[in-house]
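Predict the structure of Integrin beta.
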Amino acid sequence: MEANPVLCKVKLLFLSKESGCFTLLRSSICTPAKFLTVGESKSARCDDLESLKKRNCAVTKIENPRGSISINENKPVTNRKKDSADKLNPGQITQIQPQKLTLTLRTGEPQTFDLKFKRAEDYPIDLYYLMDLSFSMKDDLENVKNLGTDLMAEMQKITSDFKIGFGSFVEKTVMPYISTTPARLINPCTGNQNCTSPFSYKNVLKLTDKGDEFNRLVSQQQISGNLDSPEGGFDAIMQVAVCGEHIGWRDVTRLLVFSTDAGFHFAGDGKLGGIVLPNDGKCHLENNMYTMSHYYDYPSIAHLVQKLSDNNIQTIFAVTEEFQPVYQELKNLIPKSAVGTLSSNSSNVIKLIIDAYNSLSSEVILENTKLPEGVSITYKSICKNGVEATGENGRKCSNISIGDEVSFKISIDSQKCPSHSKNETIKIRPLGFTEEVEIVLNFICDCQCAKEGEPESEKCHEGNGTFECGACKCNEGRIGRLCECSKDEVRTEDLDANCRKDNGTDICSNNGDCVCGTCECKKRENPAEIYSGKYCECDNFNCDRSNNKLCGGHGRCECRKCICDANYTGSACDCSLDTSTCLAKNGQICNGRGTCECGICKCTDAKFQGPTCEICPTCPGVCVEHKDCVQCRAFGAGEKKDTCQRDCDYFKMFKVKDRDGLPQPTDQSFPLTHCKQRDENDCWFYYTYAIRNQTKEVFVVEQLECPAGPDIIPIVAGVVAGIVLIGLALLLIWKLLMIIHDRREFAKFEKEKMNAKWDTGENPIYKSAVTTVVNPKYEGK
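Done. Here is the predicted structure for Integrin beta.
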């Protein structure tokens, strides 16, 4: 069956089983019958929009269906306060916007829309307290008996619409989880403990807004017992999730508080009791008791995750510190769940519930239902303070307070048409919330021209095909561009002769296939590269290149020859006829010292170089070059004063009174050079040099600036004063040195004087003139 192009995909071509058409991504189709040139295949009708325009396909004849977004329901998010007089039903509160959209998807063309979420204040809450009543929880039960009124009072601070329920669980009522002896079935506890018969799960109190009713019924509960440490809590969680009518769940925030001091059984553990049937995930409550615990195994974690998510239930695990690690791992597997540490007697359960609720409600996580085959979805979050995230983190925002508004950019893309329905429906919702966004997906899989085809058209050789999208789609057994040949009657050798150029040996120049005596050129991997011609002898990609670009990027390749754009020439269109790139600063082409060839200056003066022949490493500057001529013409001096008339008449000269009269660069539309030069008398003269309209102009200041002669008197006075001052300084220095020398000599003398030693001993022949006599009789009276 002959293929016909309808939609287009980049690089990837495939035959649509549904329409029998080649499909190309992100491309358009040109529908006129005479659009194709000789040798071009039918799929050459498919190309991007700009390429089809360049190939002279009228815009009105190009079919290019696009995707679109239509918002069907767009109620604004609810803005209200807790103390507002207007009390709304849960169904009247909107936290997510929009609510319903229709997306028309074209393959490879994603559609993006914005989704807004805002936490409503005073949003209703349902809380179901599910408690382990095995014997180890005896002291916890006493504290939970007054939980109803106390928790109700605390939750009133968060919402004015709060309901609470209660349920309990122990274990499957078969061995080896419990003792099945008659006495133990009546009282499973040992000693003098009075316990109730074991049970799997019991719904004690349906959700109610009466806290005292909660206290009354919980006060009537009794502890039970079992044999092993793990409990049957998963059975209870499953029934709470799926038995909505028995529990009394509303379409509001749903919280399940799971309180225990032990681990849990899960799928497969039921084999110990001879239970092999997998949990069916259905409600089996009779008289508020789970009746199939002996028949169905425990649910798996994945099964629980699915049911909790389907029913928008957020789980709070209130467990003792010993089992914190186990339930932390379980929390990581269950979205929108939290774990709190329960004290040994559950005295902190209210604070635990409030903290866990605040943690859960401060995070929004988007999830979507199963996507159709070939459809993908990406998220980008814009959270508080403009914080953005993509990938998996793009699905969620954290630390959201009541009244905060966050948004998400959601892109949905399709890579292929669905094999069955042409429209699908998916839903997006925040985990733990009942509200959702419904998205209807419509797929563009056919062009309009294919639907308007002419069956058994006379344009297709006696009605042997359907004429659609400007080409024939042949009936079974017919081939050829116009379906003119029959597969059974045609002789290949005869037809191949019509496909050889100049009776050569190559069929269709080895670039195509001979179909019914006509060459149909091959398609290349790059759809922009095309074979054409009666014998596929032409192409648009084998022309000369420049700078690694086909035809230098300044022309198009037709039948292996470059057709250059305006202002370009050469075999590779690499020679520009534009001379603007050759203009020097003085406005001359190549500075008047070269020729412009293909937009590049070829300097004829060997001294000059550069892109515009303005660089001359061995040349003096403009000022130095014209100094002598300006000096001789303006002041009649300089080295050329004798040959001035002969050598210096190449410019026009204008004299001005002072430097302020010289032209300024900002006042001119042509290059201007300011010069300052000095003559042999050390006098300065100022001038400007410019070329305007090919005329060289010099403006010169008529007065020289010469330095004034030296003043002799101050110089002589200064010299004399200097000599006198130097003499006085020398005398002062000499006097200072002499004083220092004298002081040092005097100090030396004093030191030697102090060190002199004189003999101080007594004369040995010296006798004192005084004689002392002592009276022996003297008694001191």
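The mean pLDDT is 83.
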